[in-house]
Specification:
mainly alpha, two-stranded antiparallel ribbon, 4% strand
């Protein structure tokens, strides 16, 4: 299976002994070679951006981790609280660091695999500058609180449009380059690039359909259960098709190149690709097990998630076995060391993910710190180490020199590996601790740890170790920056690289014994279409039935739209990123019903644009919070969480007591909600502000009677109104 006969097209001519085994019988004039140049300038731009945002993204992550140990680190500054910078960290790592590394690898490998320069240098540069502008916009808007709250898709609608434009430009440039290729067969890495472009475009557009209210405020076109399903169809597959498939393409190119070995198995790469892109798209609902999502959708997510083990591990084995016979090189070459750990981390994450989709393990791990541990094995190990291995490989080639310090690169490898271990292992332990304490009952049948904070205080040592792991990982990145900077400094940048290849002739005779898949490799348009069909089927089958509200999401007559003040309070809750710590989904478990109240029903969320079910409980679930505490408790809790919850790691929010509630967009918010089907009376937009003032006066007046300096015009009043509404639309069972 590993013979050269089974290997697909070589990464390019630099790899020895990887010529296509089945010689194409084409009518070519070897005397007429076409000469051209590869543009290394665009590769350099993306490579430098990768390093810059690797440092920035991980430093923000370190600040996030340190706030779990010392919440006061935000210094009372609203722009760097956990709720606001957590999405900044995830977006910086996913789209700035990993995104730029993907473009680095694609713009280097694609022309060389196709024996042609990129179709348009102008579009390449537009891709670069447009992507950096999007990252800058994210860095500004997210700390300011402009967020849609959707995980991994928090950016507001103008930036979403910009992302779509830049992504399409990238796709056009890639596709046109494929069409003008001089290499007849499309190499396996390009299959993954194609699937990445098509699927990310589909996911991004469908998930981010939203109705604008202002320049940086919008409401999702979906609500409740529908929004949760679409969001995690996107969220899971953003991991699949932005953090996995393009990086697999890089693996199929750079691992054989660095090891000077052919890909282990051509047939295995075919199975890996088609099975992965078809199955992956179905797996999103496993993020919503035991929630209000219909059971059939949860079951589909579980079944297809378990099936994912096979293509995922097939790809892992294909990558690792490519290195067979080259293990001496692995010991000596830091590039290969990074690749080996990256592929191993991919295998670990893609085994753990399907296991977590089973109901038994999901009931333990979901909403706990186990999930961040799982995610960071992929982000730091798979994505991070693949990026660094690629950069250590590229810089000497781009600057026509040797790596400045192999010893420093090896040091980075070991520091980074220790960083991953110190990050992930304590969080796995924390996840088990949380699940065990949350579920523990006494012999008398009551919760052993009824106070949620008892869990939080137990995790402080784990959070310290996680911060240590983050510090080690950042230290490794800084060493890489130094090493690669010195590598570039000692060399001379090769801005363009001369190459030549015969033109691709139109006359082609199929060789005898050619493998069947070679047919589709010669036809990029058909390949695009088949890939699109493969990834679209799962989304259509899962999402469309759920949009039939009458049959899938039973309505509850007592559930009413939010009042204008509650709607404004909900927007403040979203702005502050409270959903990053608190879920709003009580699952039908004995311990959750005993702790929080009646489990959540699908019909309760029909007016939630977007849903706020959450994915992590750093604090308790709040879906049944309404009426549990008086308004004064919420006032005290938001001003100084320690006054109501000693030992809390929640930061204070003093600005909510000083900032005036902006109601200038309230009439338009009401009109947008009406357009989305929320049954406000016709013309209610004109009366909404008056109703808001009336409810605000009641809340503020009650607080004033208790001695608080409450102003009905402040944001805290709206937030209290929203919190007191949560879970009160239905009769809650007594605990």
């Amino acid at each position: 299976m590993s013979s050269n006969i089974e290997n697909t097209s070589q990464p390019d001519a630099e790899v020895e002994n990887t010529e296509k085994p089945i010689k194409e019988r084409v009518l070519e004039d070897d005397q007429h070679m076409e000469h051209f140049e590869y543009d290394n300038g665009i590769v350099r731009k993306f490579a430098i951006a990768t390093l810059i945002f690797g440092v920035i993204g991980m430093l923000v992550g370190l600040l996030v981790a340190l706030q779990f140990v010392w919440p006061q680190l935000n210094g009372g500054i609203p722009y760097i609280t956990f709720g606001r910078i957590r999405p900044l960290h995830t977006n910086a790592v996913i789209f700035a660091f990993v995104g730029n590394s993907i473009f680095t690898g694609v713009y280097y490998s694609l022309p060389r695999l196709l024996k042609t320069p990129m179709w348009s240098k102008a579009l390449s540069n537009f891709n670069f500058w447009g992507w950096q502008a999007i990252i800058l916009a994210a860095a500004v808007t997210l700390p300011l609180g402009f967020t849609s709250s959707k995980e991994y898709a928090e950016l507001e609608w103008p930036i979403d449009i910009a992302i779509a434009i830049v992504w399409v430009i990238f796709g056009v440039n890639m596709f046109m380059t494929i069409l003008k290729r001089r290499e007849r067969h499309i190499y396996v890495a390009i299959w993954f690039y194609i699937a990445t472009f098509l699927t990310v475009a589909m996911l991004h557009i469908v998930n981010n359909i939203e109705i604008p209210v202002s320049a940086f405020k919008s409401y999702s076109a979906y609500s409740g259960v529908k929004d949760a399903l679409v969001q995690w169809w996107y969220g899971h597959n953003a991991v699949a098709f932005f953090l996995t498939t393009p990086v697999l393409g890089l693996m199929y190119y750079f691992v054989p190149k660095a090891a000077n070995r052919p890909v282990y198995s051509y047939r295995l790469s075919i199975i890996h690709f088609w099975a992965l892109i078809f199955i992956y798209i179905w797996a999103g609902p496993h993020h919503l097990l035991y929630t209000a999502l219909p059971d059939w959708a949860q079951s589909l997510g579980t079944v297809f998630s378990l099936m994912l083990i096979f293509p995922s591990w097939g790809g892992m084995l294909n990558g690792l076995l490519t290195l067979r016979g080259a293990w001496d090189k692995v010991r000596e070459n830091p590039v290969l060391k990074f690749f080996v750990v990256a592929i191993t981390a991919y295998g670990m994450a893609t085994f753990e993910g399907p296991m977590l989709s089973t109901q038994s393990l999901n009931a333990i791990a979901h909403y706990t710190d186990w999930i961040p541990a799982h995610v960071h094995v992929g982000a730091l190990g798979w994505n991070g180490f693949m990026a660094f291995g690629m950069l250590y490989y590229l810089f000497p080639k781009l600057w026509n020199t040797k790596l400045w310090s192999i010893k420093l690169a090896n040091t980075h490898f070991w520091i980074g590996t220790l960083g991953i271990l110190f990050w992930a292992l304590p969080m796995y332990w924390a996840g088990w601790t949380q699940a065990s304490m949350w579920k523990q009952f006494t012999e008398e049948g009551i919760l052993a740890y009824p106070n949620f904070l008892e869990t939080v205080t137990q995790l402080e040592p784990m959070y310290m170790l996680r911060a240590l792991g983050g510090t080690l990982y950042v230290t490794g990145i800084i060493s890489a920056v130094v090493n690669l900077w010195m590598t570039a400094k000692q060399g001379s940048f090769v801005s363009t690289e001369a190459a030549s290849a015969p033109a691709l002739t139109k006359i082609y005779k199929k060789p005898k014994g050619e493998y069947w898949h070679r047919w589709i490799e010669r036809r990029p348009v058909q390949f695009f279409v088949l890939s699109l069909v493969a990834v679209a089927i799962g989304g259509v089958i899962e999402i469309l039935p759920t949009f039939k509200v009458e049959s899938n999401i039973p309505e509850i007559a007592s559930v009413q739209p939010y009042t204008p003040l509650e709607l404004e309070g909900r927007d403040i809750y979203i702005r502050e990123g409270c959903n990053n710590c608190h879920s709003q989904m009580v699952r039908p478990f004995r311990n959750e019903v005993a702790r929080y109240g009646e489990y959540s029903k699908a019909g309760e969320f029909v007016y939630d644009f977007p849903h706020l079910w959450g994915s992590k409980r750093t604090g308790p679930d709040i879906h049944r919070l309404g009426g549990k505490y008086p308004d004064s408790w919420h006032w005290e809790h938001m001003y100084n969480p320690h006054s109501t919850s000693p030992g809390s790691i929640m930061p204070p929010y003093p600005w909510l007591f000083d900032d005036e509630l902006d109601v200038s967009y309230l009439p338009k918010k009401i009109r947008v909600m009406q357009s989305l089907g929320v049954p406000y009376e016709k013309g209610y937009d004109e009366a909404a502000i008056e109703d808001l003032r009336e409810q605000a006066n009641i809340i503020a007046g009650g607080l004033q009677e208790q001695g608080y300096d409450a102003d009905e015009n402040k944001e805290i009043i709206a937030l209290i109104a929203y919190l007191q509404r949560l879970g009160t639309d239905i009769q809650v069972a007594e605990n």
